[in-house]
Specification:
The structure is a single chain. This protein has 44 residues and is an all-alpha fold. Helix content is 52%, strand content 0%. It is elongated. The mean pLDDT is 84.
Length: 44
């Protein structure tokens, strides 16, 4: 029974966090125009 109560409290806390972040909104910003290096450059 304690595990069920703990799971319900955790779920409620997670839901409250998601709703809070949704209410605040996504921070404004832009992505970098520079591409990310995904591989090591090959030296000749």
């Amino acid at each position: 029974m304690r595990a069920l109560i703990a799971a319900a409290i955790g779920l409620a806390a997670a839901l409250a966090l998601v709703l809070t972040i949704t209410a605040i909104g996504v921070p404004t910003g832009k992505t970098s125009p520079k591409p990310l290096m995904t591989t090591v450059p090959q030296h000749p």
